[in-house]
Known about the structure:
This protein has 177 residues and is mostly helical. The chain has 2 domains: 3-101, no CATH class; 107-160. It contains 8 helices and 2 strands. It has helices at 3-9, 14-23, 38-47, 53-56, 67-76, 80-101, 107-158, 169-176; strands at residues 33-35, 63-65. The radius of gyration is 49 Å and the shape is rod-shaped. The model has no long low-confidence stretch (mean pLDDT 84).
Amino acid sequence: MLDFDLATIYQVETRRLKEQVKRNIERFPDDFMFQLSKSEWKEVIANCDNLPENIKYSPITPLTFTQEGVAMLSGVLRSPAAIATNIKIMRAFVAVRQLILNPPTNEVKELQNEVKELKQHLEEIFTDYNDINEDTRMQLELINESLAELQAKNKMLNKPRNPIGYTSPQYRQKNED
């Protein structure tokens, strides 16, 4: 960003901004701030329609700030806007540090993991249940076969015997019912 734009944003005069930069020049290394060459400035003038007239014809090229320079400038200037910006930057740094130290939990991912674990647990339970169930089924089949054999044997034993000798028709009818 150019110095006159930042002066507007931070609500200070451009000359006051430049004064503070000169007083604190050690805070603005080349990767924070630099001055455009005359040819670069002419190119900016040719490509920008919204530059104020007094800036276009200034013999001094403006200072140009990178994002780090803009942040550093907010700490050097004393206007309410610069102070508010600096406070926001400091809060942003603290928030980023907190995010790095305590990354947010992904509740959806946690729920997916819990559901996956629950599915695995249920599969294990049903596998065990099916094993027990198969054993139980075989035992019940054996019990049913044994009971069927016992019932057949019991029928044979409890089958009414034909009486020996003469029986009256009334006795025969009574035993057949």
